[in-house]
Design goal:
This protein is α/β, with parallel strands linked by helices. 43% of the residues lie in helices and 14% in strands. The protein is built from 8 helices and 8 strands, in the order E-H-E-H-E-H-E-H-H-E-H-H-E-H-E-E. Helix 5 packs parallel to helix 7. The mean pLDDT is 93.
């Protein structure tokens, strides 16, 4: 059994995921930097610290997920924290403005291929990775699962006619609504165990997800996911929150 607690962060070769990996490493975790491209993951792991490892993990590929779980079992024998961070805002050309992404992601015009691609990563990928890692998390003294969601998926907030951002509610936002619901489903299912499952909103962060038009830094964005990853036995399971507290469903 590996002595240090072990954390897996998906999509951790850049952006918010990379910062979450750095913050967890600073708190004594061996961090597995999940990345579709192993070389990118290994390069990112070097920036995280000596006790970080790159891990090839494509959340849309079941073979890749199974191989990652097997590697964790064989090399580390434990998994204490899973941060489902990997996500996409669209499947089109990179470098488009946030306005262009929002326009093409509207429910009335988005192609079914686009819808499937976004949900494949943001929703089904989270389910697949969580299910694959659950046997390891069940064996941990206090397993923690953190899903990186977004307040853009809040039905309560977007149903408010005074919310100027509700016009942006499209396929990406709907995928985050679904992710928050999946978080609650896992939390309720695992309520009798020591595993806690929560959703975190990192805020509008400057990453390639929005062509770096966000207003928050990755350091700010990582705070809530990391806090939830470090919850003690008295911490909640099931809520959706940001740095300021609960986010409405």
């Amino acid at each position: 059994m590996h002595d240090n607690p072990v954390a897996l962060v998906t999509g951790a070769n850049k952006g918010i995921g990379l910062q979450i990996a750095k913050d967890l490493a600073a708190r004594g975790f061996t961090v597995l930097v999940g990345s579709r491209n192993l070389e990118h993951g290994e390069t990112a792991a070097k920036s995280v610290g000596a006790d970080a490892r790159g891990l090839q993990l494509d959340v849309t590929n079941q073979v890749s997920i199974a191989a990652a779980a097997e590697r964790i079992r064989n090399e580390f024998g434990r998994l204490d924290v899973l941060v489902n961070n990997a996500g996409i805002s669209h499947s089109g050309k990179p470098g488009r403005s946030l306005q262009e992404i929002a326009k093409s992601g509207r429910a009335s015009v988005a192609s079914l291929d686009e819808v499937r691609a976004v949900f494949e990563t943001n929703v089904f990928g989270v389910i697949a990775v969580t299910q694959a890692m659950l046997p390891l998390l069940r064996e941990a003294p206090a397993g923690r699962i953190v899903n990186v969601s977004s307040s853009s998926g809040s039905l309560t907030m977007n149903a408010d006619s005074n919310n100027p951002h509700s016009a942006m509610f499209g396929i990406y936002s709907a995928s985050k609504t679904a992710l928050t619901a999946i978080t609650l489903a896992f939390a309720l299912d695992l309520e009798s165990t020591s595993i806690k499952v929560n959703a975190a909103c990192p805020g509008f962060t400057a990453t390639d997800l929005n062509n770096f038009q966000g207003t928050r830094t990755v350091q700010q964005a990582a705070r809530e996911p990391v806090r939830l990853a470090l919850l003690d036995a008295n911490g909640p399971t099931g809520p959706f929150s940001n740095e300021d507290g609960p986010v409405p469903w």
